[in-house]
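Entry — protein

Goal — fold tokens:
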Amino acid sequence: MSFSNDVRSEICSAICDNDKRFACLYGMLLFCRTLTAEHICFQSESVISAELFGKLFKNVFKVSPECHENAHKNGSILYSYDIYDKNIISEVYRTYKLIDSVRTINSEIIVTNSIGVFTAGIFLACGSVNDPSKEYHLEFAVPTEILAEELTVLLGDIGVNAKTAVRRGQYIVYIKDSESIEDTLTFIGAQNCTLEIMNVKIYKDVRNKANRIANCDSANIDKVVNAAIKQTEDIRIIEETDGLDSLPDELREVAEIRLENIDMSLKDIGEILSISRSGVNHRFRRIARIADIKKGVMKNGE
């Protein structure tokens, strides 16, 4: 099951009293595909949303609308409720104080503690949210520009900075910030899904930190290996020219250890010699200077 359907299922389980049923159905109706004095059409590719619409409509209006299923070529199913009965539509308009041809949110008919459930109804009608392990994105495909503006304001009242766009003639209200998505899901009653996003964020954060540490370790290893190779090359030049016995005892000592231990770190060499890492590094710099002189002599000799 998709993450969007996880959210829908959790929302549905929380709609347990008449005020919430009334408010949720209002959101689903107001943001459904068609809402006119002649025709009400609620459509969804989610069987969860479709079944809830039928149950809420029966609960509020004592009428069971018929659901039609239309299969798409990609295998998905579109669930549709089409209501043409003028008496039923008139009752819907009267109950929710709707005005024909003008869709606008009338918050006065919703009790204060049901605003979140009303917004949940909007999500059930036209909302979706991506799997947080792939992308942080929640959106509402809203039927009119006015409703898009009003939904943006409603979300803004809970501190969510939603943005709007037009996609193929459809008004889209979308949220990309993970914390705003968490706030929105909590507001509409999907707290468990909010926790899932938080867990995904923690996992991603730990994984990213582990990757950074691994990359840093890899870079450090490369640096140590390259330095050891350079030190060995310098020592070989001296060995092939004047020989290691030409070096002072402290430099010959560190040179011999390096030739025998190409992968040993400066710290480990220092522990063998009972000197600091910086002391070992200083000796290798002296060897490098001697090797550079030898290379210059060899070049001039050629």
User: Anything to note?
Assistant: The longest strand covers residues 77-83. DSSP finds eleven helices and eight strands in the chain. The mean pLDDT is 90.
